[in-house]
Specification:
By secondary structure, the chain is α/β, with parallel strands linked by helices. It has eleven helices and eight strands.
Length: 294
C-alpha cells in the first residue's frame, strides 16, 4: 500500500505493542504514543520480551527488538501523529479515555487520513462522530497476540466512507493479514459472542460446577478450541474483559451481559491474567495457563 509509510499507534499497552511489532515486521515506520515518559521507557524492555516470545511461536516471522525500536518514534505528544499516514488507536477500553483522543485527532490529522479504532466493544460510530470527520474512522479489531493472528475484524461505522474502508483493508493486507467486514454494533460479532461465553464460564467456576482447568479442557478436547474461555480471558486481560462486558451491559440493557461477581472481584484484587502473572491460572513460573489452575 504505497500511500501509507508511517503509522501512528496510540497506546503502548498489550495491543499497542502488538500492533507496533506487526507494523515493523511489515516494514512500516511507527509513531508510538502513550501518556507518560516512564511508560515509554519501560515499553522497549517489554517489546524485547514480546519479540522473544513471538520468535519462539512463529520463527518465520521473527524480527529483532532492535529492528522494532529502530523504526519507531516514541512520543507523549499527540501532535506528533500529524505526520502519520494512518492511525490505529488502542487506548484503554473506556469511552471517557478514548473520547478526547478522537476530538484531538480530528484537529490534527489531514482530511482523508484513515483512523482505525482498536476496541473490544465501544461503537465505532460514536467515536467517529467526535472527530468531525466520521467518514475517515473505521473499526480495526485486532486480536491478541497481534503478530500471530491472521485476521482482523473490520467494523464499518454508520458514516465510514467506502474509500476509508477499502484503504484500511488494503493496509491490513499489507500487514499480511486478512479482514472480515461487519457492521457497527457494540461488541461487533466476535466479542458479542466471546464475552458472553467467557462470562458464563466464570459463572460456572463461581458456582462450583467445574474447576477452571476442567471447564477449559472441555472446550479444548470436545470442541477442538486452541484454548478454553478462561485461559482466553487471562490472555485478553480480565480488566479488559470486565470493561467489555460492562459496555455490552450498558449498551443493550440486557441482563444476560451482567458481569459475574467472581470476575469483578478478581479485577478488584489485581488478578488480571497473564499481564499480572495470575488470573484464572498462575503464570508466575512461566508455565502455560492450562498447567496452572487456580
Amino acid at each position: 500500500m504505497a500511500s501509507v509509510h508511517t503509522v501512528g499507534v496510540v497506546g503502548a499497552g498489550v495491543m499497542g505493542r502488538g500492533v507496533t511489532i506487526a507494523l515493523r515486521q511489515a516494514g512500516f515506520q511507527v509513531i508510538l504514543l502513550d501518556r507518560e515518559p516512564e511508560i515509554l521507557k519501560s515499553v522497549q524492555r517489554t517489546i524485547a520480551d514480546d519479540v522473544r516470545l513471538y520468535a519462539l511461536l512463529a520463527p518465520a516471522s521473527a524480527i529483532t527488538a532492535a529492528e522494532v525500536v529502530a523504526g519507531t518514534v516514541f512520543s507523549t505528544d499527540l501532535a506528533d501523529l500529524a505526520a502519520a499516514d494512518l492511525v490505529v488507536e488502542n487506548a484503554t477500553e473506556r469511552f471517557e479515555v478514548k473520547a478526547p483522543i478522537y476530538r484531538r485527532l480530528g484537529e490534527l490529522l489531514a482530511p482523508g487520513t484513515p483512523v482505525g479504532v482498536n476496541t473490544s466493544a465501544i461503537p465505532i460510530t460514536r467515536l467517529g462522530a467526535l472527530t468531525g470527520r466520521p467518514e475517515d474512522v473505521v473499526g480495526t479489531h485486532f486480536m491478541n497476540p497481534v503478530p500471530l493472528k491472521p485476521t482482523v475484524e473490520v467494523i464499518r461505522g454508520r458514516r465510514t466512507s467506502a474509500d476509508t474502508l477499502e484503504r484500511m483493508r488494503g493496509f491490513i493486507t499489507a500487514l499480511g493479514k486478512k479482514s472480515v467486514v461487519v457492521n457497527d454494533s457494540p461488541g461487533f460479532v466476535t466479542n458479542r459472542v466471546m464475552m458472553l461465553t467467557v462470562n458464563e464460564a466464570v459463572f460456572l467456576l463461581h458456582e462450583g460446577v467445574g474447576t477452571a482447568a476442567d471447564i477449559d479442557r472441555l472446550f479444548v478436547e470436545c470442541f477442538g478450541h486452541t484454548m478454553g474461555p478462561l485461559e482466553t480471558a487471562d490472555l485478553i486481560g480480565l480488566d479488559t474483559v470486565l470493561l467489555s462486558i460492562e459496555v455490552l451491559y450498558d449498551e443493550f440493557k440486557d441482563g444476560k451481559y451482567r458481569p459475574c461477581p467472581l470476575l469483578t472481584g478478581m479485577v478488584d484484587a489485581g488478578l488480571h491474567g497473564r499481564k499480572t502473572g495470575r488470573g484464572f491460572f498462575d503464570y508466575g513460573s512461566g508455565a502455560s495457563g492450562s498447567g496452572g489452575a487456580r
